[in-house]
Amino acid sequence: MAKLLEYQGKEWLRKAGIPVPVGRAASSPEEAEQIAVEIGKPVAVKAQVQAGGRGKSGAVKLVDTPAEARAAAASILGTVIKGYPVRKVLVEEKLAIAREFYVTIIVNSARNARCPMMMFSTEGGMDIESVPEEKIFKLLISPLNGLEIYDAVDMLVKAGIPNDQLMTFANVLVKLWNAYKKYDCFTLEINPLVLTANGELVAADCKMEVDNSSVYRHPEMGIEIARDFPHEPTELDRIGWGIEKTDTRGSGFVMSMGFDEKSPGYIGYHPIGGGSAMMGMDALNKVNLKPANYADTSGNPVASKVYRVAKVVLSQPNIDGYLLGGFMMANQEQWHHAHAVVKALREVLPKKPGLPCVLLLCGNKEEESLAILREGLSNVEGATRVEIYGREHVTDTDFIGQRLLALVKEYQAEKRK
């Protein structure tokens, strides 16, 4: 999913007619101070990262003056929260909070639902995870008919919202649904939804995730990479997303796995499909080799797409090998993979002579694919440690891991000479 930062999500909520606090993002303490001057009242200074628990980590500070806003921003910017460096803070007006609520729309993938679902609770705030189940009210939303205001009112009555506030709340919930649908969201959450002392409902926070397959429909959002990473996107991640972004024929992507480019034993990893990926990880773990990256080429991608993935994987510096992990009897035509891998290896191996390459490929067009690999790599300069296997080893992670390890040991010894 493509995750937006809080300040970005709030801008789209504002455009959808949902009230948000006055404020904007700042990249420096001086800019934070200027925004606080413009707001002219006490403000909240909030770290902008893709991580929860900011309040508990001290990355949200309430201050009374512009000078304090500057100091707060200086103390937050540059820190690291759950692996994410803070590059921006949101400076916004401090709200006079009377009550806090929680509302989210997610996809309910249960067999008897398979539709969007709204959840609402009168117990909003930092510890929503600990709220008892009976205090969270759920409403399945028809993808065809959407959220009708009377359905929202019914849920709010069950939640105990007073009659004189029902329409205020219901209108916000309907606007939230309209934003969810318009922006092709996977998740859209407000926590807390604040009822202020003067009776206004304001989105005090926003978690917004856009379905990655719909990002192309929203260039106005400026989403760089439509994936969820446990870290800031690396250059490899950006290159890998570029493959998928411009070609939707089958799956074909690459993402980083924390490869430090210095330690030995990292393998350029090229699995084919999710189940195959897990088995390939098992093959590597059993022999203490490590994946330099994650990748996938499944869903019958064309050869040009597979080639781009293989070339990125192989081009990583200082890897000690390459594993094409086809640990499944794939129903896609595997000769596309064979042609692509041959082209990539013919370009890379002369520059990385002796690089260990274990190629496991099976499924449709298997015999033809293996013949393409053998013939295409038979006379390539530097292809001295290439081994090719088919269905006889389709689930044999022990064998594949051991063969790769043996070749890696030879390669590492050769490099030390």
Describe this structure in words.
This is Succinyl-CoA ligase [ADP-forming] subunit beta. GO terms for molecular function: ATP binding; metal ion binding; succinate-CoA ligase (ADP-forming) activity. Residues 10-224 form the ATP-grasp domain. This protein has three domains: 22-93, 2-Layer Sandwich (Dna Ligase, domain 1); 97-221, ATP-grasp fold, B domain (D-amino Acid Aminotransferase, Chain A, domain 1, 2-Layer Sandwich); 235-416, Rossmann fold (3-Layer(aba) Sandwich), CATH 3.40.50.261. It has helices spanning 6-15, 29-39, 66-76, 149-159, 166-182, 235-245, 274-286, 303-314, 335-348, 366-377, 397-416; strands at 2-4, 23-26, 43-47, 60-63, 80-81, 84-85, 89-93, 97-108, 115-121, 136-140, 185-196, 201-203, 207-210, 253-256, 266-271, 290-291, 293-296, 322-325, 330-333, 357-360, 363-364, 386-389. By secondary structure, it is an alpha+beta fold. The radius of gyration is 26 Å and the shape is elongated. Strands 1, 8, 9, 10, 11, 12 and 13 form a seven-stranded antiparallel β-sheet that branches. It has a five-stranded parallel β-sheet with strand order 16-15-18-20-22, sandwiched between helices. Strands 2-7-3-4 form a four-stranded antiparallel β-sheet, with helices on one face. It is built from eleven helices and 22 strands. The protein starts with a strand and ends with a helix.
